């Protein structure tokens, strides 16, 4: 997952409405099914299934609005943190989840 | 109450919630020792100037300047010019006699808190980092994420984590000193803290108004404030986030020396001893437990000294 947040004073409402494509990559070559879950899809494992690449990693691009989003990978039914995430926080159930900033 | 709307894609999105308007209060800690080269501070105050220009989102920044720094430099024209033409232009300067950096934090955060409101967020910006380098510029571009995470995700405390290699003195001190001490005095809380961050003494953080108020009103320990705040956060079941701000280093002030490293380990030990005693002194058996933990703590300190002596040669 890659992203870059830049300080552009200030983040006005126009920027807040901008959708930005963000790639998420989950390295789980042995997994049967992987999906992206987060605030942006109601933590629904069916909303954003990821596609396995020839190298075994799972990939998805989603469009996210400006701001900070909580997310995790749903790997064969298990919530899994993104080891490359820029931040960590907790979801409403108190589970540790990953953080992505979108500028 | 005025409201602002944050990013959203659907109703379940946390960021979709209407959140009360809140201001971010930047608090800059001016370096205790004035660097000869102003490029790092110039880069920092370029950011401060932009914050100061955006009053819809930011309160007037505050700079805490130790009087000892001021008097050491008052005969220096470059310092006087920088203070008046840059620092004072873009921030309110709080001149304070401080025994150490933690007292500078206390002065700045306390002042900002007194001028803040219940939905506000306070953002600490340490001045003695290499912001003028290309990497430093990248880091500066990410620091604003810390208070924004608190606002957008309704957090109480967001700690910024700098990236260092394993042989960096900060890393070594935390590995063999800070966490070892924490696991001794507060094992359950230490596990919780380490789930969130590897930098429990980070100088980069943002904190919500109510939580800062709690921390300020409680006894303010003399050392390692971030560690104390993290402990209070875990014990008080506050919402904590961690965000990586990149690869930064302290300006060369001798912090890498063995003596300085041991001073930090000893300070950590002292604050954890005080904190533990304060929380447990109501138990009749506390002296017995304390004595056992203190013995172990001394062993940990001696081991840390041996390891740091070998590693920081």
Give keywords.
heterodimer, A: 103 residues, mainly beta, five-stranded antiparallel beta sheet, three-stranded antiparallel beta sheet, 8 strands, 5% helix, 45% strand, globular, disordered N terminus, B: 313 residues, alpha/beta, seven-stranded mixed beta sheet, two-stranded antiparallel sheet, 12 helices, 53% helix
Q: Topology of this structure?
A:
The complex is a heterodimer of chains A (103) and B (313).
Chain A: H1 13-17, E1 19-26, E2 34-38, E3 51-52, E4 58-65, E5 67-75, E6 78-80, E7 87-90, E8 96-102
Antiparallel strand pairs in A: 1-4, 2-5, 3-4, 5-6, 5-8, 7-8
Chain B: E1 3-5, E2 18-20, E3 24-29, H1 39-53, E4 62-66, H2 67-73, H3 77-90, E5 92-96, H4 101-114, E6 121-126, H5 134-143, H6 145-153, E7 157-162, H7 169-185, H8 187-196, E8 205-208, H9 209-217, H10 225-235, E9 240-246, H11 258-280, H12 286-311
Parallel strand pairs in B: 3-4, 3-6, 4-5, 7-9
Antiparallel strand pairs in B: 1-2, 6-8, 7-8
Helix pairs in contact in B: 1-3, 4-9, 7-8, 7-11, 7-12, 8-10, 11-12
Folded structure, characterized:
The complex is a heterodimer of chains A (103) and B (313). Chain A is mainly beta and 103 residues long. Chain A is built from one helix and eight strands, in the order H-E-E-E-E-E-E-E-E. In chain A, the strands form two sheets. In chain A, strands 2, 5, 6, 7 and 8 form a five-stranded antiparallel β-sheet that branches. Chain A has a three-stranded antiparallel β-sheet with strand order 1-4-3. Residues 1-14 of chain A have low confidence and may be disordered. Chain B is α/β, with parallel strands linked by helices and 313 residues long. Helices cover 53% and strands 14% of the residues of chain B. Chain B has helices spanning 39-53, 67-73, 77-90, 101-114, 134-143, 145-153, 169-185, 187-196, 209-217, 225-235, 258-280, 286-311, and strands at 3-5, 18-20, 24-29, 62-66, 92-96, 121-126, 157-162, 205-208, 240-246. In chain B, strands 5-4-3-6-8-7-9 form a seven-stranded mixed β-sheet, with helices on both faces. In chain B, helix 4 (101-114) packs across helix 9, helix 7 (169-185) packs antiparallel against helix 8 (187-196) and helix 11 (258-280) runs antiparallel to helix 12 (286-311). The radius of gyration of chain B is 20 Å and the shape is globular. The chains are: A mainly beta (103), B alpha/beta (313). At the A-B interface, strand 5, strand 7 and strand 8 of A face helix 1, helix 5, helix 6 and strand 9 of B. Strand 7 of chain A pairs antiparallel with strand 9 (240-246) of chain B.
């Amino acid at each position: 997952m890659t992203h870059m947040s830049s300080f552009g004073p200030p983040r006005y409402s126009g920027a807040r409405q901008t959708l930005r494509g963000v790639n998420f990559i989950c390295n789980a070559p042995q997994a049967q099914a992987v999906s992206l879950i987060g605030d942006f899809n109601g933590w629904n494992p069916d909303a954003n299934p990821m596609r396995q690449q020839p190298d075994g990693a799972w990939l998805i691009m989603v469009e996210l609005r400006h701001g900070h989003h909580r997310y995790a990978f749903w790997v064969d039914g298990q919530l899994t943190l993104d080891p490359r995430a820029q931040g960590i926080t907790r979801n409403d159930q108190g589970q540790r989840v990953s953080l992505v900033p979108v500028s | 109450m005025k409201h602002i709307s944050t990013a959203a894609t659907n109703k379940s999105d946390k960021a979709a919630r209407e959140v009360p308007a809140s201001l971010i209060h930047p608090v800059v800690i001016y370096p205790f020792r004035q660097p000869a080269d102003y490029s790092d501070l110039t880069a920092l105050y370029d950011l401060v100037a932009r914050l100061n220009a955006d009053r819809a989102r930011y309160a007037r920044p505050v700079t805490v300047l130790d009087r000892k720094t001021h008097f050491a430099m008052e005969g220096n024209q470059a310092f006087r010019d920088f203070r008046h033409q840059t620092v004072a232009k873009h921030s309110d300067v709080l001149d304070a006699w401080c025994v150490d950096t933690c007292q500078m934090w206390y002065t700045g955060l306390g002042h900002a808190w007194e001028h803040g409101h219940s939905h506000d967020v306070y953002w600490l910006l340490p001045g003695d980092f290499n912001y003028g380098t290309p990497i430093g510029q990248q880091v500066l571009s990410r620091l604003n994420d810390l208070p924004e995470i608190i606002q957008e995700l309704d957090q109480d405390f967001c700690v910024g984590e700098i990236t260092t290699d394993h042989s960096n003195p900060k890393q070594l001190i935390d590995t063999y000193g800070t966490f070892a001490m924490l696991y001794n005095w507060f094992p359950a809380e230490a596990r919780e803290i380490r789930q969130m961050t590897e930098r429990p003494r980070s100088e980069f953080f943002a904190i919500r108004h109510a939580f800062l108020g709690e921390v300020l009103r409680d006894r303010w320990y003399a050392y390692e404030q971030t560690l104390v705040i993290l402990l209070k956060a875990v014990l008080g079941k506050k919402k904590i986030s961690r965000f990586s701000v990149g690869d930064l280093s302290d300006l060369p002030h001798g912090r890498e020396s063995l003596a300085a490293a041991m001073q930090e380990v000893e300070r950590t030990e002292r604050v954890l001893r005080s904190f533990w005693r304060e929380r447990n002194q109501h138990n009749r058996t506390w002296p017995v437990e304390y004595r056992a933990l203190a013995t172990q703590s001394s062993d940990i300190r001696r081991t840390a000294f041996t390891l740091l002596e070998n590693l920081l040669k």
